[in-house]
Design brief:
Helix content is 46%, strand content 12%. The protein is an alpha/beta fold. The strands form eight sheets. The chain has a four-stranded mixed beta sheet, covered by helices on one side. The chain has a four-stranded mixed beta sheet with strand order 20-19-22-21. It has a three-stranded parallel beta sheet with strand order 6-14-13, with no helix packed on it.
Length: 690
């Protein structure tokens, strides 16, 4: 007897060999001899094959080429018979002998009982192993041999390898080249037939004797049949359908009218960019390249941009079983399509999975609202005022004119300089396929630079400037908004288009159709880089941030205007010229602000070193000194009580010896935090004086 192991006893009925390793000394004497299949007594050869692992099990392997892919390869190498014992409904067929007609699991039990009764069972044991199941119905999948249609892939894969290796097609990110080459250089023939209800029918018709006629349609197949048989015969089309990926691989050119040479095909094939997930690089992308080269002689696209999988906030794959699936339609209904689109574009990098955060979608919904409110402010301030359009405008480049530089204020010059910089950076990043980083920089520019800083600074000239100054600032407000909408449009198409259509004089009809943001040219702002304005306004921003931090630290209400003394040094002229802007942004009382080249430090004042100047904020203008001293002393007293309690615990040997280590460490951490806070409060109290 030769002992073998199996987890599927019914497949013994389809065995056509027993394989051993050629170097296994235990079986040298039986190689080349034959054995009998249990219960059927069918004679099969004993063969030597290096696939067998000598240390695994008994070292002898039952070979069932009709029901195991690895055994199938062995069968090919040794020219073994391929016996299929199973019907499509998982019952056993006539090749199973006395077990024909039984369900696979019933046959498994019956065969094993018969072998046990015949004394052919050596040992039984429980063993965990992987069993393939259908993803949808969870049924155990049975490998079995069947007749299918195949495509020989190696001759098709070689040109597809060449176009990527030469750079004619570029995969982004580049590291996926290795994945692509691994698949294509180790490619196997492709089974393209599927036994499904829906799909493209296999274009093959069979005659009465099952002779196959491959044709574009039944009429063409009938002509072939008449030529073959000499008469008209009944034809029956193959019931199988093409693999989904075969049909999908035809998509780039079949949708454009191929095989006819249509105008659409000439115009749009090949295309430029394919954007898809990295998980179907081989299943879809490689097949489109193969078929494009085979059927059109051209590559289907120049660039393949791969995104990652969208996972939940914890990084888990979204599945029904985990209950963590986020329906895009639900998210759009709650937050808007622009917010979801912007989140997906900016939350990841090429080829890497992303964690989809609900808080980020909500934040980007707020960004859309911020943009909308900024546009409302601009449009409101344009009412009753005409804006000059650029002299060189076209229907695809409708933009506002800009004033002469001499008419601009510092904030105007700064925002135009920032616009040019962010436009250049975003254009470069998008060209380098860093779409997420480009979007994040646009977010920072629109929310931070334009909305938070420039619009607030612009209110000074709009409300307090001369008519000419106000008009110049209106032009800049509108120009920067319109250009920003162009930059944001690929990321947030709906809100940007809606705003653009409501800006004065931009929309309208042309002979070729309505003007729209979606067909407008990409921004190309030049000549407005202004390092001096960047430096000067940047200093104002630093001073404002420092003053805002001090106001927050001392709980100064936003509505209170406070005094300040600024020792400006070389920045004297710049700060004097822009005092109204500084006062508005920092919440200062312009009439109570003293600016000089050098000023002595006043008593009891907060000193701020920022923006290359020293700013003093008299404490009397920030807080009620007596009330603040009382409040600080109460905080110090409260901290002292907490420290006294902690000191008592940590000084008690009973507590230290018995309490868990993490509890002791937690108390020591609190002690350190309280001690640090007490030092700050004592220093603050000392600053206030008596």
């Amino acid at each position: 007897f030769l002992e073998v192991s199996t987890t599927r006893p019914e497949t013994i009925l389809g065995d056509t060999a027993v394989a051993v390793h050629p170097d296994d000394p235990r079986y040298q004497h039986v190689i080349g001899k034959t054995a009998l299949v249990p219960m059927l007594n069918r004679e099969i050869p004993i063969i030597a094959d290096s696939y067998v692992e000598m240390e695994f099990g008994t070292g002898a392997l039952k070979v069932t080429p009709g029901h195991d892919p690895n055994d199938y390869e062995i069968g090919l190498r040794h020219n073994l018979p391929m016996i299929n014992i199973m019907n499509a409904d998982a019952s056993l067929n006539e090749n199973a002998g006395p077990y024909a007609g039984l369900d696979r699991f019933a046959a498994r039990q019956k065969l094993w009982e018969d072998m046990r009764a015949a004394g052919l069972v050596v040992r039984e044991e429980e063993r965990a192993h992987q069993v393939g199941h259908c993803e949808r119905c969870k049924t155990v999948v049975e490998p079995l041999l069947s007749e299918q249609w195949w495509v020989k892939m190696k001759p098709l894969a070689e040109p597809a390898i060449d176009v990527v290796r030469s750079g004619e097609i570029q995969i982004i990110p580049e590291r996926f080249d290795k994945v692509y080459f691994h698949w294509m250089e180790n490619i196997r023939d492709w089974c393209i037939s599927r036994q499904l209800w829906w799909g493209h029918r296999i274009p093959v018709w069979y005659g009465p004797d099952k002779h196959a006629f491959a044709a574009r349609n039944e009429q063409e197949a009938r002509q072939q049949a008449i030529a073959h048989y000499g008469r008209d015969v009944k034809l029956e089309q193959d019931p199988d359908v093409l693999d989904t990926w075969f049909s999908s691989g035809l998509w780039p050119f079949s949708t454009l009218g191929w095989p006819q040479q249509t105008e659409d095909l000439k115009t749009y094939y090949p295309t430029t960019v394919l954007e898809t997930g990295y998980d179907i690089l081989f299943f879809w992308v490689a097949r489109m390249i193969v078929m494009g080269l085979k059927f059109t002689g051209q590559i289907p696209f120049k660039y393949v941009y791969l995104h990652g999988l969208v996972r939940d906030e914890q990084g888990r794959k979204m599945t029904k079983s985990l209950g963590n699936v986020l329906d895009p339609l639900d998210l759009i209904a709650e937050y808007g399509s622009d917010a979801l689109r912007f989140t997906l574009l900016t939350s990841g990098t090429p080829g890497n999975d992303m964690k989809l955060s609900m808080t980020r979608i909500e934040s980007n919904r707020n960004f859309a609202n911020k943009l909308w409110n900024a546009a409302r402010f601009v449009i409101l301030n344009l009412e009753g005022h005409s804006l000059e359009l650029a002299a060189d405008r076209t229907p695809y480049d409708m933009r506002y004119a800009l004033p002469e530089q001499a008419a601009l204020g510092l904030a105007d010059r700064w925002i135009l300089s920032r616009l040019q910089q962010v436009q250049e950076d975003a254009t470069r990043l998008i060209g380098d396929w860093q779409l997420g980083e480009a979007g994040r920089q646009l977010y920072d520019f629109v929310w931070g630079d334009y909305c938070d800083w420039y619009i607030e600074a612009a209110k000074v000239r709009l409300n307090e400037g001369t008519p000419a100054q106000a008009q110049a600032t209106r032009q800049v407000l509108a120009f920067v908004l319109e250009q920003s909408l162009r930059l944001l449009h690929p990321y947030m198409p709906f809100v940007t288009e809606a705003i653009w259509q409501n800006l004065p004089d931009l929309g309208g009809e042309e002979t070729q159709g309505p003007r729209a943001l979606i067909v407008s040219q990409w921004p190309r702002v030049t000549g407005w880089a202004d390092p001096a304005a960047d430096d000067a306004f940047g200093r104002i921003q630093e001073i404002v941030r420092a003053i805002r931090n001090a106001r927050s630290e001392y709980d100064v209400p936003p509505s209170r205007r406070i005094a300040a003394e600024i020792s400006a040094g070389e920045q004297l002229a710049m700060l004097q010229a822009n005092l109204p802007t500084l006062a508005r942004l920092a919440g200062l009382d312009a009439a109570a602000v003293a600016i000089a080249t050098e000023l002595p430090a006043p008593a009891r004042a907060v000193t701020l070193a920022a923006g290359g100047v020293t700013t003093y904020l008299p404490l009397a203008g920030l807080v009620d000194l007596a009330a603040e001293r009382t409040r600080l002393q109460k905080e110090i007293d409260n901290i002292d009580k907490q420290l006294q309690r902690i000191d008592g615990l940590l000084g008690n040997p009973g507590f230290v010896n018995k309490a868990p280590a993490e509890v002791i460490e937690r108390e020591r951490g609190k002690q350190g935090e309280l001690q640090g806070k007490r030092v700050q409060l004592v220093d603050r109290l000392a600053d206030l004086g008596e």
